[in-house]
Here is the input.
Amino acid sequence: MVISLGIEGYGYLLSVGIIDDNKVLINKSKYFESPDYQDYYPYFIATHHRKNVLPLIRQCLTESNLQYQDIDIICFSNAVVMRMLAQMWNKPIVVVNHAYAHIKASEFYSKVENCVVVYLCGKFSQIMVKKDDKYKIIGSSLDISIEEAYLKMSKYLKFYDKEEYLGATIEELSKKGTDLILLPYMINGFYFYLSGTLCSLQNLINNASIKIEDICLSFQEAVLSIIVEITEKAMLDAQANQILIIGQISENKRLQDMMTSMAKDNCSVVFEFNKNYSIDSGVMIALSGLQQYKKYGPTKWSESGIVEK
Here is the structure.
């Protein structure tokens, strides 16, 4: 039995999760709220995370009836404070790749085997296939990611999904849309571009005669159709029979419906979706770190520093 503590501090989210082998003991999150509810401010986010990470860890330990002595490993993706904590507690550390943690956690809890991974996180919109326990990127956005497109769209319309997943307001308004406006987008094999789509959207938003609901409907149908089309190509090319969507956009009900419909039309392909582990969380770091620890052991201190980019 190995108890793993995972800390996630990616973007505005701070999350701590503790697992006992494969059993989730607790997962707590705290969000940074930007002053104008739109942009990221690295300095303020860092200050928020530094201020809240130790109280959040303390809260998780208390609510799961654990002491710090009970923790066997500390897992994170390159966070200085966690190196300090590991030294104070004299615990081994495991440095986890953020994207890999997303995939492994979703894969583990969804029980998928032969799947196409649709990775829609932050600045990345990538289509991957698994081969020899490794993931090969076979397609992606070449300019603006799907999540960035939703962020830009929300900013254009002055929306902020404070409590919901990214794009929740756009999805709700799109249900009330009645007039679908065709928007330009470009697909080249497994790769695509969205800059032209967003430029066209700006022109629509500036047109007072077009309803916001119709703009949201047109935007959502365009960007989600791209992902579904490329996923279908990848699935047929890789002869996969499952689809795994990762990221906040995976909570979009319209995307789930489109993927499910496409899957049924292609040899009864199974669509897998797991809300709890497809988004950022401390649990996904703890689980991925635990699997890595069992296979390769702890990360060397000399290999766990911050890498400047």
About this structure: The first strand starts at residue 3 and ends at 8.
